[in-house]
Design brief:
MarR family protein, Arc Repressor Mutant, subunit A, three-stranded antiparallel beta sheet, WH_DNA-bd_sf, DNA-binding transcription factor activity, HTH_MarR-typ, mainly alpha
Length: 165
């Protein structure tokens, strides 16, 4: 079904966007306030804390986060300078482990994360509504996750420069 969204569909979409933006902003603010962590740092630490022995190979971490190697490498360098993680290289294997300080900050941030998610969303949903939302999200995300990552598209600025030259 192509064409324009109905006014009801457009309204639903705008509400979902606003809720997503609000929730993301509030949760990120709470995490930063509680533990002085960015959302990216929190995500990295979450993966490490949940991993066996609280460490992962760098390529495993990149896959879990859905990040490219360059983005992860830059993020890990910043986190290593803040003593949140430790990196070790053994041959061609790069291992990343959470430090004591990283665990402590993660625990503070995780408590703030849980409280924010509950107060923003979960406390406002019945069990049936939450289950319906989970089902819809899972059904929507599953086909997208199965698709290969889209090829990198040139930026609008690059397209414009190409047209000008």
């Amino acid at each position: 079904m192509a064409g324009e969204l109905t006014s009801g569909e457009a309204s639903t979409w705008r509400l979902i966007q606003r809720l997503s933006d609000l929730a993301t902003g509030v949760v990120e603010h709470q995490i930063r306030s509680a533990a002085d962590l960015s959302a990216a740092e929190f995500d990295v630490l979450r993966c490490l804390v949940e991993a066996p022995e609280r460490q992962l190979r760098q390529n495993e971490l990149a896959a879990l986060l859905g990040w490219d190697k360059s983005r992860l490498s830059h993020q890990l360098t910043r986190m290593q300078h803040r003593e949140l993680i430790d990196r070790q290289k053994s041959g061609r294997v790069h291992a990343v482990a959470v430090t004591r300080m990283g665990r402590q900050k993660f625990e503070l941030a995780d408590n703030a994360h849980v409280a924010a998610v509950r107060s923003l969303l979960l406390e406002h949903l019945s069990d049936a509504e939450r289950e319906a939302l989970e089902r819809t999200a899972a059904e929507t995300a599953a086909p997208a996750a199965a698709q290969p990552a889209p090829a990198a598209q040139p930026s609008p600025a690059r397209i414009l420069r190409a047209r000008i030259s």
